[in-house]
TrEMBL record:
InterPro entries linked to this entry: Pilin-like (IPR045584)
Segments passing through the bilayer: 15-34
Keyword Transmembrane helix included in the entry's annotation: yes
Organism per entry: Iodobacter fluviatilis
Organism domain of life: Bacteria
Keywords, alphabetical: Membrane, Transmembrane, Transmembrane helix
Protein name: Cholera toxin secretion protein epsG
Length: 164
């Protein structure tokens, strides 16, 4: 025969169950915070990559447009033209490769240039940037922007790269 549980035994098992539920609740809260911190870290890394790649593309557009200035300012029509300049008989590279938008993994949106081509790019991501302050001087206009689409990497005509 098995022994019947006593009233004290029932009370203890109920108490242990309450502790187990509380432990699961605390672990769930902790894991949610860890997940949020990990997501923020990943987003900050993408933002840094966006700034690095955007600066490289803007620099490539500037170098491309300064080449052959006697024929007037010309802008590239695609990122591939920055990778390998079709205007030159010798291979000229202004950027390493045709980068994808780090925030979306897709193509960039182009800022149209006067006379054709594009004079800049921006991300098509709609999210709000985590970084809002303390940008390098080249990106001072990015402070307090509402979306990544407001971060414009452009070689504005007349050298106004920092004013927009």
């Amino acid at each position: 025969m098995t022994a019947r549980p006593t009233a004290a035994g029932k009370q203890q098992s109920g108490f242990a169950y309450a502790w187990a539920l509380m432990a699961v609740l605390i672990m769930g809260i902790y894991l949610a915070q860890v997940g949020e911190a990990w997501q923020n870290r990943a987003q900050r890394a993408k933002e840094e990559e966006l700034l690095r790649v955007g600066a490289e593309i803007r620099r490539g557009i500037r170098l491309y447009s300064e080449q052959n200035m006697m024929q007037g300012t010309q802008y590239p029509k695609t990122l591939e033209e920055l990778v390998l300049d079709p205007r030159s008989p010798t291979p000229r590279r202004f950027i390493r490769k045709a980068y994808k938008d780090p925030m979306t993994g897709d193509d960039w949106a182009y800022i149209s240039a006067p006379g054709g081509g594009f004079m800049g790019v921006y991300s098509q991501a709609k999210g709000k940037p985590l970084k809002q302050q303390r940008f390098p001087s080249d990106f001072a206009s990015f402070a307090n922007q509402n979306t990544y689409q407001d971060w414009k990497f452009a070689n504005w005509p007349n050298g106004k790269a920092l004013k927009r």
